[in-house]
Amino acid sequence: MRIHTPPQSPTEPQERRRALKTLASLIAVGAGGIGLAACSREERVGTGAAPGAPAVISKAGDKVAFKYPDNPSFDLIYLADQLGYFEGTGTRPQYVGKIAAPQIIPLVGTGEIDFGSRMVPLVISAIASGADLKVVAAGGKTLEEAPHMKYFVRKDSGIRTPKDLEGKTVGFNSFGACAEFVTKKYLREKGVDVTKINFLVVPDEQAEQSLVTGNTDLAIIHAPFSGRADRADQLVRLWSDYDLDGGLGGMAPYSAHGKFIREHPQAVRDVVVALAKAGNWVNANPEEARKLVSKRINMAIENVDRYAYVQDLVVTEPPIQYYIDILQSEGKIAPGKVAIKDVYTNEFNPFAATPAKT
């Protein structure tokens, strides 16, 4: 097992940085507000050669180095790296520093990072806005015993039913993702006026403290940090996303920049295979995985929630259609704007029985 030391992020011109910050800020205000520049039909994700200059990547010897965030989280890229699943391939991760969750998909869409893991609705909205990216591997899945996210309130809050949330503040990690759309769909089904709820962005690692101190009234927290909240004396868990939709909205896939896909198909295969091996290893060794993650995020292992992953990370269509329907009903994308096949491909996953065409 070998752990690679993350290299420093390459220096970028200030003007490019300002442009990227502007782009990332747009995604933070909601899936409907992504201001991504459209790309031409010829520059779309596909298997053919793309015109123009080669993708800007880093190299280490004869290896292709793909740019990836170095975030404190439960993530298969880090685990695959630690477990040695990139050894023997021509591909390795190049960690480019911490990137805030709302910025990940916009930066994949522009190619500033080559891969990223964020929820399906963010990818759909980015594609609808012209971003050049595609889901290449399924990621986490929701099980009753291993939810994707959990809902907590203070024990003394008096909040016990969905209707109790009207007039309250709900903290979640970003607009435009699972926490917003799964929650709003569920609350509306329970007769809640979601316009009477204040939604506030709070990073997962800070969500428990924000709730305890009264800055929020309900916190939606993702694994691994949800485990610590489960053990907090002042808090009580109301629901998980499994309770809300049976886990349909819990797939957390891995997406890649279109130009990187076109110009480095073998590297994409290497990454997808490494991810699939790591996901299957986590499913078979959940406690060992928790130990590795606990060291990475510097959290006591008893507070680290586990993750479950889609077998072989083969992408299926129901979770994608689920979010297309939600985004259309929320008025975030026009009907027919994005088709399922626009969102994903299993082309690079050798475990997929019938690879999808791009």
Our count of domains comes out at 2
Summing up helix and strand content along with how strands pair, one would put the structural category as alpha/beta
β content, as a range?
Answer: 15-25%
CATH topology of the largest domain: D-Maltodextrin-Binding Protein, domain 2
Description:
A five-stranded mixed β-sheet has the order 8-7-9-6-10. It has a four-stranded antiparallel β-sheet with strand order 4-11-5-12. It is 35% helix and 16% strand. The chain is an alpha/beta fold and 358 residues long. The chain folds into two domains: 14-140 and 251-343, D-Maltodextrin-Binding Protein, domain 2; 149-245, Periplasmic binding protein-like II (D-Maltodextrin-Binding Protein, domain 2, 3-Layer(aba) Sandwich), CATH 3.40.190. Pfam families: NMT1. This is ABC-type nitrate/sulfonate/bicarbonate transport system substrate-binding protein.
Please render the helix and strand layout as text.
Elements: H1 14-28, E1 58-60, E2 63-68, H2 76-83, E3 91-95, H3 104-110, E4 115-117, H4 120-128, E5 133-141, E6 149-154, E7 169-172, H5 178-189, E8 198-201, H6 204-212, E9 218-222, H7 226-230, E10 235-240, H8 241-245, E11 252-257, H9 258-263, H10 265-284, H11 286-297, E12 308-309, H12 318-329, H13 340-343
Parallel strand pairs: 2-3, 7-8, 7-9
Antiparallel strand pairs: 1-2, 4-11, 5-11, 5-12, 6-9, 6-10
Helix pairs in contact: 1-3, 2-10, 4-12, 10-11
